[in-house]
TrEMBL record:
This is Tryptophan--tRNA ligase. Pfam families: tRNA-synt_1b. One of its GO terms (molecular function) is ATP binding. The gene is trpS. It is an enzyme of class 6 (ligase). The keyword Membrane does not apply. The keyword Cytoplasm applies. Belongs to the class-I aminoacyl-tRNA synthetase family. It catalyses: tRNA(Trp) + L-tryptophan + ATP = L-tryptophyl-tRNA(Trp) + AMP + diphosphate + H(+). Its main location: cytoplasm. Its EC number is 6.1.1.2. Residues 372-399, 506-537 form a coiled coil.
Length: 548
């Protein structure tokens, strides 16, 4: 969550389609040459996805992220987002986890939040600008915005001194402010000075174990304890906006940070007082068993002596002959149903007590309307749907000292290609543009960038350029066109149509980059004079003995 195109990242760019928006600003059209719905390429023998928040993330195409990790295409939710950001419209933000609650909160003017962070290991660059922009746009749409500096992670995972971290932290904050973050309406903090985050990390650590760290992050006996602590701290960062009240929260990240998001969503559920599930009888069912028992209930007219009151044993006998593969789940479901005998098979919502206090458990029983049944460790409600049950459980939990966390949402953006082709890394200065680069240096880097052009001008005019493979066109789509979809589309169409040659295209992009850097750095200087007014600790090194 806290590293976006980290300065020494080995993350390679994901092959993608950078088709510009239509003239009306809508999402890119999926043409005949876009056989894959995710914009990736059907690469023969492509590598499997390996998502590592600190190391190498090799992704051959976005389809693997959808298939292997359950990330959903952002196009599926785009129409639900009021005033979508241009990165959303152009497919740069390509995927999400559970973004619909965020979109609904925007539309309904309900509380919600956005948070993302930065590991201060080097200067902020144009790759980081995407995340800055995503935080700022969400703040402008009405979200409570949080920007954090992951200094504990930088110190533990990368071994930076506190003096180095202080310098980089100041630079990240300046760029975030210069790009439009409102510190009066939002929250800026660093992990090392936020005691609430550290306390929450401690509580979350109770629900985490080393075997998970091994499975998720590949930690082993050589991994230092501070590095492991930095993970629970990041989990606390992700859930921090919900400390005062549960609310939908979105975390904008690159796809390499998805392991953090999946772990945070799991921990959010584990911290809850109550787990809400659908049930059909007094006994517990696994998810797979529950699906089969639901099928048996829906077919009760085929076997029940009294259709209004089917018995578990009857359902078990029917399910035993149900025409489906003889799975382990079916066998266990049949056994549980037959063991329950004449117990009625009745749909209900079940509140299972996880960490609930006795007072919270009693309060939930009292709050449930209609028919209900109380057991030692759970409560069954017969006249309530699942959504209402979730809302009631969270309300009771929050009223009795619990967190009531809503699983955090996330959005994922494509990595920018380096100006020299391949990955963007600050270890290769020519591959990236720092937000601190002299404007003339930025101009020169763009002028020297690799393009998707043909070998000769004649061939370019005849065949058109390959904008989808061009780092310079990426600059237009991701940054230089800003909110102007017409301009982005014009550059693309002229390139692939052979009207635009690379020399002129790079000259125009270089001039725009120079203007952007000059303007950005002027705004940084303006904010530098007002940093003392911020509630932010810039000098941590001076308060720490040894400084390393």
């Amino acid at each position: 969550m806290t590293r976006e195109h980290d300065t020494d990242s080995e993350t390679e760019p994901i092959s993608n389609d950078r088709t510009p928006p239509a003239a009306d600003g809508s999402a890119p059209q999926r043409g005949a040459d876009r056989a894959l719905p995710d914009g990736g390429t059907d690469t023969e023998g492509a590598d499997d996805v390996a998502l590592d928040p600190w190391g190498s993330s090799t992704v051959s195409d976005y389809r693997k992220l959808f298939e292997q990790f359950g990330i959903e295409e952002f196009d599926a939710v785009l129409d639900e987002v009021p005033n979508p950001h241009y990165l959303m419209r152009r497919g740069v933000i390509f995927g999400h986890r559970d973004y619909r609650p965020i979109a609904a909160a925007m539309r309904n003017d309900e509380p919600w939040a956005v948070l993302s962070g930065f590991m201060p290991t080097g200067d902020p660059h144009i790759g980081h600008k995407m995340v800055f922009d995503e935080i700022i746009w969400h703040q402008q749409q009405g979200g409570d915005a949080y920007g954090l500096i992951a200094d504990l992670e930088a110190h533990s995972a990368r071994g930076l001194s506190w003096e180095e971290i202080d310098e980089h932290a100041r630079s990240y904050v300046l760029s975030l402010l210069a790009l439009g973050f409102d510190p009066e309406e939002g929250t800026l903090y660093r992990q090392s000075t936020n005691r609430e985050v550290q306390d929450l990390a401690f509580e979350l650590g109770i629900e985490a174990n080393f075997s998970e760290f091994q499975a998720i992050y590949g930690f082993d006996g050589e991994t230092d304890i501070s590095h492991m602590q930095s993970v629970t701290t990041q989990m606390a960062d992700i859930l921090y906006p919900q400390l005062d009240e549960p609310k939908p929260t979105v975390i904008p990240v690159g796809p390499d940070q998805d392991p953090h998001m999946r772990f945070a969503r799991d921990l959010a559920e584990r911290m809850r007082f109550f787990k809400v599930t659908d049930a059909f009888a007094s006994f517990e069912l696994t998810d797979a068993e529950r699906e089969l028992v639901a099928v048996a209930y829906d077919h009760r007219e085929e076997y029940a002596e009294d259709e209004a009151m089917p018995r578990c044993g009857e359902a078990g006998d029917w399910l035993a002959d149900y025409e489906t593969s003889a799975t382990e789940a079916r066998q266990s479901a049949v056994e549980k149903l037959r063991n329950a005998g004449k117990e009625p098979l009745r749909p209900r919502v079940r509140f299972f007590a996880r960490h609930a206090t006795d007072e919270a458990f009693d309060a939930l029983v009292e709050a449930i309307d209609g028919e209900k049944r109380r057991y030692e460790s759970h409560i069954d409600a017969f006249e309530m749907d699942h959504e209402a049950a979730e809302e009631l459980a969270r309300e009771v939990e929050a009223d009795h000292g619990g967190y009531g966390f809503i699983p955090p949402s996330s959005i994922y953006h494509r990595f920018m290609t380096g100006l020299t082709g391949g990955k963007m890394s600050s270890s290769v200065p020519a591959s990236h543009i720092s937000l601190l680069d002299d404007p003339e240096d930025g101009y020169d880097k763009v002028r020297s960038a690799t393009t998707g052009g043909r070998e000769t001008a004649e061939e370019q005019r005849e065949l058109g350029g390959k904008a989808d493979e061009c780092p310079v066109y990426e600059l237009y789509a991701y940054l230089l066109s800003g909110d102007d979809d017409e301009f982005a589309k014009e550059v693309y169409d002229e390139c692939v149509g052979g009207e635009r040659l690379c020399g002129g295209c790079k000259e125009q992009a270089a001039e725009l980059m120079k203007e952007f850097l000059a303007d950005h750095q002027e705004k940084r200087e303006e904010w530098a004079e007002k940093l003392d007014e911020l509630d932010f600790e810039f000098d941590v090194a001076g308060e720490r003995a040894g400084g390393n």
